[in-house]
Amino acid sequence: MPSKHVLQILLLTADPDLAELYRHECPEGVVTIAKDAASALRKSPKRRFDAVIVESRKDWMGQVQALCEIAGQAPPVVLVGATPFLRRASETVKGFTNGGLSKRTNSKLPQDLGFDEYISAKLRDFVRRMKLGAGSDLHPLIIKAVEKPLIALVLEETNGNQNQAAALLGLNRNTLRKKIQELKIPLAKAKKG
Residue 126: inside a domain, yes or no? Predict the structure, then answer.
């Protein structure tokens, strides 16, 4: 049986939560974590990396160039972005560990999922990330995160008519007004109706 190539990943970040996320998401790969290229090269001077992931900052291009000069070639994959982007990208990187895409728990594409399945998958990712970041009080946080875009979307669909929006949401109009204020939904989107 041929041996599988283990993906060598270099993550350049100063964010310990991001580092922990990649360690957790890519257990079948080797994840080297360093603050910059110089410290990465001290940790693993002769290692070639299959993917370099860089938390964006002003000198990110210099970091990648330093790695290329030492290795003699550019890594096949370079991913640069802000922390929120790199958090979302961890799932994709996980798919490439051990030389192939990992099996998905659900073989459907996001657009083919039912509403309950889609929400469940998104909540699972969110809860996992909150757990890694030592989050707490998830219930009010998730309710607020869902409620604001829902109300804004309904107001948009009803052209800002608060009577129609309240009826569609199953809320009293005064309750809707209160939520618009609490959630700081701009009145430009929420015209009085």
Answer: no
Q: Which amino acid, one-letter code, is at 3?
A: S
pLDDT in tens, 76-120: 778 888 888 888 888 777 777 644 443 444 445 555 667 777 777
Q: What total of structural domains would you count in the chain?
A: 2
- Beta bridge pairs of residue 55: 81
Provide the mean pLDDT of the chain.
77
Domain span at residue 166 reads 137-182
pTM: 0.47
CB of 39 closer than 8 Å to CB of 78: no
